[in-house]
Amino acid sequence: MRLNFPRNAAVAGLMLLASCLPARADYVVLRSGARLNVTGYEILGDRYRLHIKGGVAEVPVQDIVAIEPEEIFQPSTEPLTEKTPFQKLIRDAAARYNLDPTLIHSVISIESNFDPKAVSRKNARGLMQLMPRTAELMGVKDSFDPAQNIDGGSHYLSDLLKKYGNDITLALAAYNAGPDSVDKYGRRVPPYLETMKYVQRIAKTYAKLKADALNPATGLSLPQN
Q: Counting runs of H as helices and runs of E as strands, what totals does the chain give?
């Protein structure tokens, strides 16, 4: 699925991407590098029986490297206001890199739920979950410093949007899985459940926040880029 949105994209377009998501599950990491999203599993001698969407699959034990819990943060669903954590840093970074602040807000919500000390099992760090190499490339010395992290993450997201012609879907997929993975699959969202669900969850959060900001009943107006 691929959508190409300008910065002030219609909320309706994003809602098409934000479909219902699977329930919490685990990831089975295969020796090939593939990651399978499973809702359950059992050992049958020298094989694992994996319960996946649509049925079951049996995989030799030696082909499985690890079984990892899915990381899910419950995102903030409140529009960006003066009360939003780190709102000034978000707005400053948005202005600096010509991004929609609500997009940065959405990424932080999904990545860390606004925990500046968050660390993933892959060693991604801080509010926007920067990998050490990405932080180094963006000039971030301390990923746990909110100002540096938001600046570095926004800078990286801006670079990805430029690389993919302002295609938010591809930029987010690359933010999660890396641009090499997006390019490997012909500049499409890689067929990794983790990445597809990541893009969907941010799209859903982004669309919700934009819709709330547009609703006159909230008394709020859209932030200006």
A: 8, 6
pLDDT mean values, one per 10 residues, the chain (225 residues)? 42 43 63 80 82 85 78 69 94 98 95 91 92 97 98 98 96 96 93 86 90 62 43
8 A C-beta contact, residue 87 and residue 80? yes
DSSP reduced 3-state for 49: strand
Q: Report the C-alpha gap between 7 and 88 in whole angstroms.
A: 20
Give tens-digit pLDDT for 151-162.
Answer: 999 999 999 999
DSSP secondary structure, 148-192, as one string: HHHHHHHHHHHHHHHHTTT-HHHHHHHHHH-HHHHHHTTSS--S-
Q: How many Cβ atoms from other residues are within 10 Å of residue 62's Cβ?
A: 9
Coil, helix or strand for 28? strand
Query: DSSP 3-state helix, strand, coil percentages of the chain (rounded to 5)?
Result: 45, 15, 40
Q: Is 111 designated active site? A: yes
Q: 42, 68, 70, 111: which one is catalytic?
A: 111
